[in-house]
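Narrative summary of target 7.
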Amino acid sequence: MIDQQTKEKYAELALKKGVNLQEGQALMLNAPIEGADFTKIVVRKAYEMGAKDVHVNWVDDELTLLKYENAPEEVLTNVPEWRVKLHDFYAEDGAAVLSIRSTNPDLLKDIDPGRIAKANKANSEAMVNFRKYTMNDKITWSIISIPTGDWAQKIFPDESKEEAISKLWDAIVKIVRVDQDDPVKAWDDHNATLETARAILNEKKYKRLILTAPGTELEVDLPDGHIWKGGTAESEKGIVFNPNMPTEEVFTMPHKYGVNGHVSSTKPLNYGGSLIDNFTLTFKDGQVVDFKAEQGEATLKHLLDTDEGAKRLGEFALVPHESPVSQSGLIFYNTLFDENASCHIALGKAYPTNIEGGSAMSDEELDKHGVNDSLTHVDFMIGSEKLDIDGMKADGTTEAVFRKGTWAIDVTGK
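Modeled conformation, tokenized:
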């Protein structure tokens, strides 16, 4: 089992490089009650770093399941005003937001997908203002994970709960570089590598990306003025932070009307406690016009029916197959990890920061630039060691960007 010192290093890393907590700043923390011991370490570290206030929103899988099993639908779809005001209060105060996501991937597998979809949509509608703060990087925010019993045993089904948790801790610690002597410096070096890669891609100014793999033949147009990002982000106040830990991606936005062809998933998608697996989406002029899934097809349909924008793409991310997450050989059933093992795309809302001047644009201006809007943003994995990607330049010529799941262009800057 992981020792106390390593947990302390991880908590400190999440605060220093994740949200980059500043002295006098508040912290809002979303955490699983099963991880209370680790959460208390984070809270103590935050106060030691000068946080003025730390508020914890506890999450409990068992209570969540009981509510879905027993509560009437009007309760599931009624987001209390106090909860909305709580999130808005901390966002408007400039608080950092750290989320520890460790949900059991099979939590809601026996729940009617329609109930889940209605609850997710109601929550998204209620949190529209709060999401503007995170998706526009007005505040600092970050997502990390710690092992929980059911999640760990999903990954290591032949192990006891205690041994599975121990193995998952070992994997997470290595992947997020906490096993290194100086994790903060390790992340500085890693961020510099991703910054170089995104700078080179921004110089390319590709007009289109062409994807080829088993089950995938997809063309993705990129809007004029698109920006590749990855690794760190910068808040409205100029605070540099890491939204995801781990992160191995560089990403941009597709043109909402410029996606054509079909694409197949390469890893399971854990969507709100339900798994969607082995699915294919067919696009025409940016919109999903057909879909199929071997597992979770009803859940996928409800996701696509969230709103008009849920049928279009909001993100395109490049992740080489040799990333530490991929090389672990594990399927995590957790998007935070699985998306950093594989190239991925996202259904739903695009990050306005992925286009020049996007954070200052109105909804109408964003739409004119081809920026997708939606109540949802759901990443799913499409990469493998068999994926090839070509980039089309403004003059119509193409060059190899990925071959067999890894970079075909030099993104080291050397």
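Residues 4-175 form a domain with the Thermophilic metalloprotease-like fold (CATH 3.40.1830.10).
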